[in-house]
Amino acid sequence: MSLTDQNDAHERFTRLLLESEPVMLRSTLVLVPNRADAREIVQETAVALWRQFDSYDPERPFLHWAMGFARIETRRFLARQQRRAQLTEKAMEVLQEEMEQDPGFGAAIERHLTTCLGKLPDNQRRLIRSYYHDGRSPQWLSEQEGRTIEAIYKAIQRIRADLQTCIESQMRKELA
Amino acid sequence: MDTMDWDSLIQKHLDGQTNAEEAEALSSRIVADAGIRARYLQAGQVHGALADEVLALDLGDDPKVGVASMEKNKPIRSFACWPQQLAAAIVAGAFVGLLGIGVAWAIGKPRAEVSSLNVAHGTFDSLLPGPIVRGFSSRFGEWSGDPVEVVEESDGNRRLRFMETGNVKGVPKGGASACNAFQFIDLAALRHQWHASDSDARQTLELSATFERKPSSIDEAFPKLRATLRIYLFEAAPETIAEGWPHVLADVITVGKKVVRLEPGETSGEISAVCLLEPESTVALITLGAGVGMESNTPIALGNYYADDVELTVTSSPKLPVRIVK
Question: Residue B52 and residue A22: Cβ atoms within 8 Å?
């Protein structure tokens, strides 16, 4: 491969990966919820994808091709990392199948999550922002807010559940 | 367990709070029960979307405010691409970091190199207390912008105070929702500092600063004020950018942005905005801002809002390690 061809391939790969990376990360987070772990898996997937990019058929959707690699890297990661309790391989398998077969809720999130976030009270938005956007730990948040770590976890979990309910409600409105 | 219990367990699992036994029980139920499987997928996808850095913009800022105020002056080129450009830049920034780490693993040793670039008067200690240049200076290494001033603290430290929101070009009804300070950085002249000739390296530019909001008389009216860091990269002369602002944003190559909101008495710590350092970029425009997060055509006093310790660094990471391995 000439240097020009190699540069072209690199640019093409970068563009395709940039488009797909958010979806890969989100899907990986469903199966491996810890954000650092999920990012590590996506990093490994990116390297694996580049290694095999010569064999990529541009007629096929890149994301579909990439998700196959992400599945392999997820399994590899879980085989070597036992830091946290994870779902079993069988459970992950059925979840992956279902995600691929029915992207309905994932697509609804794209449409409605911003709206639902906008409906949250300020203090809840702030908590979610600190936890997800600023990467604050529950321990740090508990010190800032003068609440127990358990209470912080509960609050975050309740907000997520409320967002889930809100998105479902928005979906129902769409169908009505 | 009833449905509610499973929902709680799902939520616990998403935060890494389940033990091995609970994860096993949840797994079995996911395999056996389509209803629980669907609940888990929905909850997991919400969790995944919240962790998405692009989506997180909606949490940290309300882009509608900035876009709406700038769209009023929209020239021939569409400004509608702005959020997409921003999103792309952030994803790209995240991805570069991602590859950097990937590289290190692939070849077994870290290869990223970090170079500090000089931001003139980045600590403000070399400036005399008093207002800085109003308007849009096109000179490299000079702070300018909306009403801001350098103040000296009792310990002798000098920093920037945002006085009131403004409209840097003085456009009538052009919006005054934020107070910004600007400085042009001559990337073309500094390029030798970060091995720009290395075609196997990819560079990111990181702008960092600290913000502090001290209590003041506006606290009740504005319980939260934004602090914003931005880097815009252009292939254009500073004079052209200054003259064409803000319409010239349609020509930006890439942009990095970070927003935090501070309450009275809060400090931000060091925050950073990151963007890809595209090779064709010749000028970086860095901005520090404080804003009220609402549209206003009249200036709003910002109380005691400060910025300090502005730094700019370039990180060079090998583009794709696998190429080297090959």
Answer: yes
